[in-house]
Amino acid sequence: MPGNKKNVKKILEGLQKAYPAVKTQLEHNSPFQLLIATMLSAQCTDKQVNSVTPALFARASTPEEIMEVPLKELEELIHATGFFHTKAKRVKECAAALMEKHGGVVPRDMESLLALPGVGRKTANVVLNAAFEIPGIVVDTHVQRISQRLGFTKFKDPVKIEFDLMKLLPKESWIDFSLHLIYHGRAVCTARKPKCGECTLAEWCKGAGK
């Protein structure tokens, strides 16, 4: 059966061979910048976020500085990421909460991150993984799609998928696994026309060739 524990090791090895060096594609110079970039990436590509954040972080790169930027100006700075009204409001609320509860420092635990306005499990895991090297599984559209195709989960809810994968995969693989599937989803296992003939995971994939 695709996705059973017997094949996990082979799948992980195949991904590591195909993508030996992986990292988040969101450009950042601090945990706070990564947090904000990840919040902006909701329903937006990393490439688009990266086109916006240089000007944003040149204007304001700390929670205190973000709080001082007028809402209208912040909306203009992040306009190209979409849903800019909501995102600007959440970014300012998040910055205020960081200042009030954490002295402007991004916390290193899931519970504290989830208590910040606009931060869900996906965003929290990105920050924990990339900023602090704390294991967690990021479930974006690529991870969701490929995990389902591999038979690793039957769920569509990202949180349920995350917990299925946490039970299935060794903890030391969690960070790279998410990144591997994101890379693989962009390059090979695309949503509409997956390149099954080029896929290193095809022999274990229940969706291969369909």
UniProtKB/TrEMBL annotation:
Catalyses which reaction(s): 2'-deoxyribonucleotide-(2'-deoxyribose 5'-phosphate)-2'-deoxyribonucleotide-DNA = a 3'-end 2'-deoxyribonucleotide-(2,3-dehydro-2,3-deoxyribose 5'-phosphate)-DNA + a 5'-end 5'-phospho-2'-deoxyribonucleoside-DNA + H(+)
GO BP terms: base-excision repair, AP site formation
Cofactor entry: [4Fe-4S] cluster
InterPro entries in UniProt: DNA_glycosylase, Endonuclease3_FeS-loop_motif, Endouclease-III_FeS-bd_BS, HhH-GPD_domain, HhH_base_excis_C, HhH_motif, Nth
EC class of the enzyme, as a word: lyase
Pfam families on file: EndIII_4Fe-2S, HHH, HhH-GPD
E.C. code: 4.2.99.18
MF-aspect GO terms: 4 iron, 4 sulfur cluster binding; class I DNA-(apurinic or apyrimidinic site) endonuclease activity; DNA binding; DNA N-glycosylase activity; metal ion binding
UniProt xrefs under PROSITE patterns: ENDONUCLEASE_III_1
Binding, [4Fe-4S] cluster: C189, C196, C199, C205
Record's cofactor remark: Binds 1 [4Fe-4S] cluster.
Keyword terms of this UniProt record: 4Fe-4S, DNA damage, DNA repair, DNA-binding, Endonuclease, Glycosidase, Hydrolase, Iron, Iron-sulfur, Lyase, Metal-binding, Nuclease
Function text: DNA repair enzyme that has both DNA N-glycosylase activity and AP-lyase activity. The DNA N-glycosylase activity releases various damaged pyrimidines from DNA by cleaving the N-glycosidic bond, leaving an AP (apurinic/apyrimidinic) site. The AP-lyase activity cleaves the phosphodiester bond 3' to the AP site by a beta-elimination, leaving a 3'-terminal unsaturated sugar and a product with a terminal 5'-phosphate.
Membership in a protein family: Belongs to the Nth/MutY family.
Protein name: Endonuclease III
Species the sequence originates in: Desulfatibacillum aliphaticivorans
